[in-house]
Amino acid sequence: MRNLLVTGGAGFIGSNFVHYVVENTDLHVTVLDKLTYAASREAIESLPSERVSLVVGDIADAAVVDPLVASHDAVVHYAAESHNDNSLNDPSPFVQTNIIGTFTLLEAVRRHGVRFHHISTDEVYGDLELDDPQRFTESTPYNPSSPYSSTKAGSDLLVRAWVRSFGVEATISNCSNNYGPWQHIEKFIPRQITNLIDGVRPKLYGAGLNVRDWIHADDHSSAVMTILEKGAIGETYLIGADGEVNNLDTVKLILRLMGHDENDFEHVTDRAGHDLRYAIDSTKLRTELGWTPRFQDFESGMSDTIRWYRENEAWWRPKKAAIEAQYAAQGQ
Ligand code: NAD
Ligand code: DAU
């Protein structure tokens, strides 16, 4: 394997993966990214041009995808519409990119016999009760709640069918909530950090008892690289770092680390169909492929993330007013 095609490599997790590949391997990376509102050219432009190139294009455009896939040894597929709240306002780009885009890539890897790794989410499994002793495993039935998670579930099922029916050499990973640098400020953690920098109180949906299972984006990257190198074709691996925290405690942590009173937040309108709890059991990945997460101290990871947003205001500042206006229109 010498040449990787990384779709969505200018987004939050994809760009962290591209950095990881450059720092930890000698592979060449081609990023295929449509540069939607969620992308950041800046996130990858500092990388050496002999290691990383960017093709601006749509994964649902077969004329772009086919020759690119043909000239690479493996595809790592991150590109997606990724934000639940946006999917509630307008599901259409989610169906187009997450389902038709994945279909277009699968047809290209089938035609050219190229290895495929599909990046997915724990949200395909729906949610858990707060006191449920079980966590999600690779055999948990699919039960997605939102337009976003249902299109991700659909894309996973396409991958499974292309493996079984056409012998495509694919693996799938379903990861929990990521945090780290370059995450769009529409998302929970960066939204609250940048609100506090602006002197605005953090906004908690509903009572804030919803639990998310946080993992640092670098740990997601090391897990994906492990699966690409050692994963068994046709298999699904769950990625998680035992990071369950409810949103109320996360907001309190951010407030404390940024020097504010822990109770200085406000409750806003809850998300429709809001999943209660996600929790990943990553035993299969750890025991079969020997992966372990490195960032298990959420407080220190959060401190680094707060510092990153303080130091990179020039990147997020131009997006902030429009994002907050959109949330305000929804009472959020
Ligand atoms: P993101 O929204 O930050 O980035 C998505 C990237 O995909 C952007 O660069 C965007 O321009 C690109 N893109 C969108 N539509 C495209 C199209 N039609 N053609 C080409 N490029 C297109 O998303 P993210 O949070 O980095 O998530 C990346 C992947 O990881 C997604 O597949 C998501 O489902 C999955 N995932 C995310 C999380 C999380 O916590 N954010 C957790 C588990 C899995
Ligand atoms: O679990 C993996 C998923 O994590 C990924 O598949 C998605 O792409 C990613 O966006 C993320 O989905 P969530 O919906 O969990 O993330 P989000 O950052 O939007 O919200 C995290 C939690 O915080 C959720 O319970 C909603 C809540 N929330 C969110 C915002 C934006 C708030 O309480 N206040 C907010 O302002």
Structure commentary:
With 332 residues, the chain is α/β, with parallel strands linked by helices. It has a domain at 3-179 and 214-239: NAD(P)-binding Rossmann-like Domain (Rossmann fold, 3-Layer(aba) Sandwich). Helices cover 44% and strands 16% of the residues. It has helices at residues 12-24, 42-45, 62-70, 84-89, 92-112, 147-166, 188-197, 217-230, 247-257, 283-289, 298-311, 313-329, and strands at residues 3-7, 28-33, 52-56, 74-77, 115-121, 170-175, 178-179, 203-205, 211-213, 215-216, 236-239, 244-246, 266-268. A seven-stranded parallel beta sheet has the order 3-2-1-4-5-6-11, sandwiched between helices. α5 runs parallel beside α6 and α7 runs parallel beside α9 (247-257). The mean pLDDT is 98. The structure holds nicotinamide-adenine-dinucleotide (NAD) and 2'deoxy-thymidine-5'-diphospho-alpha-D-glucose.
Helix proportion: 40-55%
Give the strand order of the largest sheet, numbering strands 1, 2, ... along the chain: 3-2-1-4-5-6-11
Helix-strand category = alpha/beta
What do we call the CATH topology of one domain?
Rossmann fold
Largest sheet: 7 strands, parallel
Average pLDDT across residues?
Answer: 98
Supply the CATH architecture of one domain. 3-Layer(aba) Sandwich
